[in-house]
Write a structure and sequence with these properties.
The chain is α/β, with parallel strands linked by helices and 327 residues long. It folds into two domains: 8-225 and 316-326, TIM Barrel (Alpha-Beta Barrel), CATH 3.20.20.70; 235-309, no CATH class. Helix content is 37%, strand content 13%. The protein contains twelve helices and eleven strands. The strands form two sheets. Strands 1-2-3-4-5-7-8 form a seven-stranded parallel sheet. Strands 6, 9, 10 and 11 form a four-stranded antiparallel sheet that branches. Helix 8 links the parallel strand 7 and strand 8 (209-211). Helix 1 (8-16) runs parallel beside helix 3 and helix 3 (39-57) packs parallel to helix 4 (73-82). The longest helix has 19 residues, at 39-57. The protein is globular and about 55 Å long.
Length: 327
């Protein structure tokens, strides 16, 4: 949902409908950054602009998702807290130092995105040991989620883990944490959810909420180009697959000519334009993920591709945020 897909317009619509509207902080500065300013400066300015715009459009609960492997992670977190965002979600790599940036009097809640109860335990222990802070919640992303996954390539491709099994493992730990610290620690489950039936199944396993991404792409409020949305609507199940990401982990995307060319070594970048990801190495990466996602946002699929959840092929029409909630 990063680089222009989930910004203030979509986030505010979700918040107004009763959800937690989430702004994706990654690559905001690429959308309409000021020429002559650095990528980092434009990204900070962009996050401030999107938070303030979302606040004007909705009085609901708003969040920012900040990927922990970004080179300017600390600046983005500090900026979001200073702007009094309600919640910060953070994951990809475990955000073990996220509470470090809390400031006195801040009401911003910090939520870790994890892929297993083991990762949740490690995060909770580190946060409490070093910062005396208990996670306000956990987002538990299963192997059918879109974009970057916290599983190995083989575990993501197979049926070794299901979201239901992961939730069943996670809920008892969250309850233990809640009792130990006398505060609720909700489990928010995500990955491949596209229907009310799936939501009911997850809630019956004692998760408190669900996270949806792909279902909101085909809405009129989503900031992506119409061509981007059309890729989701016309996607085929057999084309939704795992790819290798410059972040060094598997990601789920919709196969196209760009992905095939990248895998053949035809999209190797000659230099790093943005220095946006800590783990990206231009000597070994198959393509520049920032350029690819920016191109896709603009509707140019010769130079980009679309991340999506495993069940995006079930989304087959343009809609609105209100209709997604109703359905």
């Amino acid at each position: 949902m990063g680089i222009g897909i989930s910004l203030s317009r979509l986030a505010s619509a979700v918040a107004s409908a009763g959800g937690i509207g989430t702004i994706a902080a990654v690559g905001v500065g690429l959308i309409d950054g000021v020429p002559g300013r650095t990528f980092r400066q434009n990204n900070i300015d962009g996050v401030i602009k999107e938070i303030r715009m979302a606040r004007k459009l909705s009085t609901g609960v708003l969040a920012v998702n900040i990927v922990s492997v970004l080179t300017n992670f600390s600046e983005l977190v500090a900026t979001a807290i200073k702007e009094k965002i309600d919640i910060i979600f953070s994951g990809t790599a475990l955000p073990l130092n996220l509470p470090k940036y809390k400031i006195k009097g801040s009401k911003t809640k910090l939520v870790a995105i994890v892929s297993s109860v083991r990762a949740a335990m490690l995060t909770a222990r580190k946060w409490f040991q070093h910062h005396h802070y208990v996670p306000e919640a956990f987002v538990l992303e299963g192997p059918e989620a879109g974009s970057h996954l916290g599983f190995s390539y083989y575990d993501s491709a197979g049926k070794k883990f299901s979201l239901e099994e992961l939730v069943a493992d996670m809920v008892p730990f969250a309850k233990e944490l809640s009792v130990a610290h006398e505060k609720p620690v909700p489990v928010i489950a995500g990955g491949g959810i596209t229907s009310g039936r799936q939501i009911r199944k997850i809630i019956e396993l004692s998760a408190s909420a669900v996270q949806l991404g792909s279902s909101f792409i085909a809405t009129k409020e989503c900031g992506a180009s119409e061509r981007f949305k059309q890729v989701i609507i016309s996607s085929e199940e057999k084309k939704i697959r795992l790819i290798k990401s410059p972040l060094g982990m598997p990601g789920r995307a919709i196969e196209n000519d760009f992905i095939l060319a990248a895998e053949s070594g035809e999209k190797h970048p000659d230099r790093c334009k943005y220095n946006c990801i800590k783990s990206c190495n231009t000597k070994t990466t198959e393509y520049c993920i920032a350029e690819a996602l920016l191109s896709a946002y603009r509707g140019n699929f010769k130079s980009g591709f679309v991340f999506s959840g495993a069940n995006a092929h079930l989304i087959n029409s343009f809609t609105t945020v209100e209709e997604v909630f109703h359905r």
